[in-house]
């Protein structure tokens, strides 16, 4: 299993002095981040889809082994609610594919009040090219059915494994040849940090599910106070000690 470890976003003001040198201009933060991690999840595309030139600039500013997971625009998931997906998916791909070989998985996060509609999800997923990895994060409990699992397996999309307060909030299904884990909030102190026991549990779960040839993308979304950075480093250390291959993290 190759663990691809990063954080959800990189532009947080309270990371200055904690992760970014105090005198480093913010315009150079991406370069610094990409020197310390091999991946990032871009959340702000959900709120406002960047222009194609922005994605192309991110590609030019990052090293060859860097990948960018991109969250699908909320126009498709929260406004259209998966209806008429052709135009939103085409617009998204028309911009995000400017990342070229830096494009990692596309994250499709569904609204917490969107009840299960496997047919609508299937119609959306079939619009993505076969060479674009897609991870789906449903959040209403009505989605946890065999119908959802069959759609994800047929379209070779990953079910997002998600954690809140140290516990899984979704079934731990493997539906394709890669994994995708998001860690939203831990129970340790200072908030919203994760404890070693919780992190070790996720290392074990991933190791039991994905073999050495399969990547698993792991993103820490608990950014306040730099918790995501600290926890990503701790998680990577535990995974390395367990014998797994892990992408670069600060200090390694």
Number of domains: 1
SSE string, helices as H and strands as E: EHEHEHHEHEHEEEEHEHE
Radius of gyration: 17 Å
Fraction of helical residues: 25-40%
Question: Could you walk me through the main structural features you see in this protein, from its secondary elements to its overall organization?
Answer:
By secondary structure, the chain is an alpha/beta fold. It has one domain (2-246): Alpha-Beta Barrel (TIM Barrel). 33% of the residues lie in helices and 20% in strands. It is built from eight helices and eleven strands. Strands 1, 2, 3, 4, 5, 6, 7, 8, 9, 10 and 11 form an eleven-stranded mixed sheet that branches. Strand 1 (2-8), helix 1 and strand 2 form a beta-alpha-beta unit. Helix 5 packs parallel to helix 6 and helix 7 crosses helix 8. It is globular and about 50 Å long. The relative contact order is 0.17. The mean pLDDT is 97.
Care to give the gist of this entry?
This protein is of the alpha/beta class and 252 residues long.
List keywords for this structure.
eleven-stranded mixed sheet; single chain; 252 residues; DUF72; UPF0759_sf; 8 helices
Secondary structure topology:
Layout: E1 2-8, H1 29-36, E2 39-42, H2 52-61, E3 67-71, H3 74-79, H4 86-96, E4 103-109, H5 118-125, E5 134-137, H6 146-155, E6 158-159, E7 161-164, E8 167-168, E9 179-185, H7 196-209, E10 215-220, H8 227-241, E11 245-246
Parallel strand pairs: 1-2, 1-10, 1-11, 2-3, 3-4, 4-5, 5-6, 7-9, 9-10
Antiparallel strand pairs: 7-8
